[in-house]
Inverse folding.
């Protein structure tokens, strides 16, 4: 165990959604300490301009670097799309986004090369998953669908039932008709809807959870870089930029565990 | 016509929702010029802390004062709840929020004193409508219901149809059971859902549109203060703090007209 190995994994998102990625990291890397930063004062990033998002991502990265993280996981599709490459070039630690792990996993599991991607309007309009999938499998047929209501359903806790199912059927109708055999959950909120989405999609379609794929990729990167830690005692820290109370209320649904000791911090100037 | 009368009405919201208030102002006060400011870089205000919201509202007010507005309409329930009184005390021009006009209208139309209020979680949790209604009618029975999915439905354009109706039935079930005869639309997004909500609520319930009530109150304030303008040529200016494109896409649904020449500005420091 090296000194660097004992450092925490930094996970950053615009709000609570990234907690699904953190949850997968906790499950797959139980010996690792983590520091989570939710930029709740400025959520959501989706409607903001690329320059603004890059500035926010830089500030979040600086904050986590100051806390000594050994790897930075950008658990936010919007920030990954606009800031991951630049952060990766600029920082001395590995930077992991949520898009490429999900895209690679989709290519690995598809049999017919028809891959569906669902996400927020911002993620879908950016074409970031489509490009990432085509980089690995140029002949892939990617069909994307923005599902803006899913975030509201997940935060409302309406993760099953009539409204959720009817909404999902409406959004997925086109994808299903085009015969996709793989469906990428391209938004960190969507793992909460996974069971319902599996029912609606049916047994012929494999769901790819970007959160789980990102955690697996993080484990691989730690192994490759010799950064794995296997301590018995781990620390889990949580920071937000506004309204710790609302974050705490929502956190359990996303993380699968209660979150205590959330600290409110200020980013930027 | 005085020099001050020729000045525009300033309307401020965290995003596009306030355009329903602006629309009602345009309809009821067609001779008035308007300046709209949507703080799209920091939308939504709901999850942010009262201090943060007050700071944002101050910055927005300063921006509109610099453009010479003769009255300030806070077309945002969250900002009204946390900032309207302080702004009213501090500024030399009339400050109009969306809560009191809607509350007064509800008291005017109710026959049985049972008033339902729907809004975002932030607005409902703040109890602001309940207090405003009870100030006018202390014996009113107010039943409030947060409807977080309605904003997403309005922005998605799903303002009628199965998903919208099923969502509305789920949210309104309790209010209907308690025999309210009046339902206040306590969120600037909700006028888009009005037709569907009328169907779900049924003919025995009167819907109160806070946007329309606020425009009527604005007309009254202008008359009272001798600030009415009746020029043939009016100007309508639009400012946002980020992503003019998305604002423009959504604007037509909220305003009932295309919005041109949106200018992006920076607030605060």
């Amino acid at each position: 165990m090296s000194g660097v190995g004992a450092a925490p994994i930094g996970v950053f998102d615009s709000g609570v959604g990234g907690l699904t990625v953190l949850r997968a990291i906790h499950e797959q890397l139980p010996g690792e300490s983590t520091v989570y930063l939710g930029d709740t004062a400025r959520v959501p990033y989706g409607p903001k301009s690329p320059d603004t998002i890059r500035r926010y991502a830089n500030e979040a990265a600086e904050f986590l670097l100051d806390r000594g993280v050994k790897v930075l996981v950008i658990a936010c599709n919007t920030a990954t799309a606009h800031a991951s490459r630049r952060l990766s070039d600029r920082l001395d630690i590995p930077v992991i986004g949520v898009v490429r792990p999900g895209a690679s996993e989709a290519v690995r599991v598809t049999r017919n090369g028809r891959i569906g991607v669902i996400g927020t309007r911002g993620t879908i309009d950016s074409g970031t998953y489509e490009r990432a999938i085509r980089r690995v499998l140029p002949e892939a047929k990617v069909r994307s669908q923005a599902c803006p209501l899913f975030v509201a359903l997940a935060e409302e806790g309406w993760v099953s039932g009539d409204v959720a199912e009817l909404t999902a059927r409406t959004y997925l109708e086109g994808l299903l008709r085009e015969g996709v055999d793989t469906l990428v959950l391209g938004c960190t909120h969507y793992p909460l809807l996974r069971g319902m989405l599996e029912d609606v999609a049916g047994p012929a379609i494999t769901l790819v959870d970007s959160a789980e794929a990102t955690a697996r990729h993080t484990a691989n990167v730690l192994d490759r870089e010799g950064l794995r830690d296997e301590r018995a005692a781990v620390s889990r820290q949580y920071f937000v930029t506004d309204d710790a109370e609302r974050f705490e209320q929502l956190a359990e649904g996303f993380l699968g565990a209660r979150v205590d000791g959330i600290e409110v911090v200020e980013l930027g100037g």
